[in-house]
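User: New here, please read:
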Amino acid sequence: MLLFVSSLLHYTRRHRLRSEAERRERQRHRALRTDLQRLQAELAQRAAGPTAPTAPLRLALVRPFTSAQVELLERRTREWWQLEHAAPCAWCSAGAAADPPADWHAELIFYYSATREQHAATDAAVRRRLLAAAALHASGAAHRHGGGDRAPSCFDAVHFWVHTVDDARADCHPDASCLAFYALLSRLTPSVADRPRTVPRYSHLFWMEPDVVPIRPRWLDRSLYRLVQQAAAPEAAWLVGSVSHDPVGDYRDYHLNGNALYAVGQPAFVHDYVQQRVMRKYARTARVPFVDGCSGTSYGGFDVSLSRYLYDANMTRDEWAYVQRTLHRFRATEVVVNMGNGKRWRPWQLIGDADAAVALVHGKAANAVRDVWDPDDPGWPDAGEAETAPEMQDVQRFLEVLLQAMQTQPPSMSAASDDPLWKHLPACLSDNDLATLVRYGAFPPPALRAWIARQTRQERPLPPPFA
């Protein structure tokens, strides 16, 4: 009898183990079949060529700020229609205006983060100042999309939203910015319960802090439109941003800066990745005590946490399997460039080739600068220091050749015309103009050096400063 019971138990255990193995095998087959179907669909889409997304592209351009940044944000907003290179769209830029694409909608949101007491004391005045600065960019929806007599505009609407920091101790970096960012994501993305019956108001969010400055006209309706269009294509990107071009400490800074494009219309990004994974993994610590999802590094931040999850050395097997499936949805771009605390950046150095995509630069060095294309602007922290950029050395060498050529008797331009920079001089330059160039000698003023650099770096030549 004992032998029979022992045999029965042994058989039952073997049967249970076999059943468990078969169940795992069936699960593996189902997962492989699902992956195969997804890959087949992706290959079919690629074979058919790129297609435009069918859903409208609705961008929320969010300008987050605190009470200390009101003046900077107001000034930068006014510069959108005062400086040609800062024009957001065709309506504000020189040349013929162009209607926006039918699938493109953009709204401007001023997002004020402060304590309850600060809101009560300052909201009305701050709202009035910023909406007045943006007045030329507002109230154009009817005109932009084929109806009404409203004035042309770059945005369908302009909003003033507030975020309240409940605990005054949290009104500091990085807690305050993390609280504001995650609160905005929740506000813009339908909850899990509302998901089946709610269409997101915006497909994408572009987080644009006050120290982000445009360096190329039509950065909104051309540069950001193309970026959103690419991000919304099949296998949509969830986060598109810039790596650090001026890292502090370890040069291997993988994180995508927070001034970036976010797919807030994708619940899989907001709910599954951000809220269920990042915010749980990087819970509040002694360094960041008031908000989850902000402790991805020792100094904290929502952007470093969103990126850190993808390459965290301590990730589990489940996390690694998730990263394998989703890593392609996080992409670097050069439409916006993060210069961080770098002092020496200049727009003509960043643009480089004529087809470079750079349109926006995040960098605190330009906060006191009015016109970033003016090398003599006293707001630059390194104003007056010697220019060491390679293109400036090329310009100096070229002008030395010109000076020598003009001093020969008779003057001969053969040596200068062999120089690679010669072809960038406008053909309309007269002998007097050329003599004016040479009169500056081997050490031309910064405005002239910047102008010649622009000839080699810009899509179209700009008039020389002495014309």
Observations:
- The first helix runs from residue 2 to 47.
